[in-house]
Amino acid sequence: TMIPLAKHPERNVIRLQLRQNFMLKAMDEAEWNELEPLLSIVDCAKGDYLLHQGVHEMEQYFLIEGVLKRVVSNADAKEMILRFAGEHDIETSYAAWRLNTPTPYAILSVTKARVAKLSMPQRVELLARHPRYKAEFEFAIMRLMSEIMAHTITLHMLDAPGRVHRFMRKHGELAERIPKKELAAYLNLSAETLSRLKQRGKI
User: What pLDDT shows up at residue 202?
Assistant: First the structure.
């Protein structure tokens, strides 16, 4: 279900939750007042797709509750998880929009989740009117892409315990909320290897 924020029965609580989002904290009152009427609230069940791979219709997401994942898949249905995102984080396909290319990945919920969203054309128009905020947003996107690159490198450079330790150091708050099978896939391990490392006290 999708409900405009202004009409949502929990809108007052949701507004407070959204102002904790790392990308919305940076907005001044005028910027927020422009953004708020554009937001719709979506409640997702576990496994729901917010964005499909290979499409041109894109949206910007602000996480309120739950965990999302960014996944790329090939024609043989092999998947690679690029990142997880929890409360106060964002998900986006802004780079694909700017490059005028189809979405190179899908975004779906790992747990039951609630997000605020707006269409990418609306997002881009708003950013164009606020250069300071646009610069902050684009810097955040570059940092996010850099983190994905660093993760991909560690899959090749670190051994299994090293990969798990790095995840715990960077994203410890998500560790207990992500199903072990999903976490193992993200770290390019089998679920059995992850369990064995835990049992041996290696992680």
Answer: 62
